[in-house]
Amino acid sequence: CCSPVISVFKSLRGMPRLLYHLAFVQCLVWIGNTSWTYYSSQWFADSVYQGDQHAPPGSEKQLRYAQGMDDFSTGGQLRSGLQLLSALVIIALLMKTSLRPRLIYAPCILIGAIVSFLAGFAVGHAATFAMLCFVLSIMPETGSFAIPFGLVATLNKRAEEEGKQVSTALQMALLNCCVTVGQQVCHMVLAIIEEHLPLEKALPCVFILAGVAHTLGGTSALCLDDKPA
Asked: What is the Cα–Cα distance from 163 to 150, expressed in whole angstroms?
């Protein structure tokens, strides 16, 4: 029953160091991305606007909660628009310039680090500031979808030309697993924080975690060995 798992680990042995480096970066990036993807709505409603979902209808806290959710919805639409535009810009830079992928990927991640620290330390109850941070927080996610998988595909194409046996599907699966690892780490840390703090104060802490993870991921991405063949 363990043979499929053993065969997977055997297949991973001997793969290029770049793949393991990308996997490490992907884990860190998705710790930060998960903070924004899963907890932004609660952050707007509970922390920024100090609302309460369970407050009596028509009360000030219930109205604040509704306003926070409205701002989250507006920010989500702007965020999607920025993701589309930034993805097109990344593709254009990769195709039309000689910039190495790491020099595009790392700034995307570090933008996420900056806005995460701002969300954790500086935003407070400033709604417009919160929306700006929320919109810009899409940059690490955009980079993580565009660049690591492209690097793996390029790496494998080069290996095939050299007559080496490669498993693109397995390598892509490894990167996807790293997304899941990052998500689970983020959820677990927030659960631990909530044991000691109310949700309103715990949510800024999880954005500080995102800032740390993105800082480590961005600096590590700068060291990727993405030299052309």
From this structure: 20
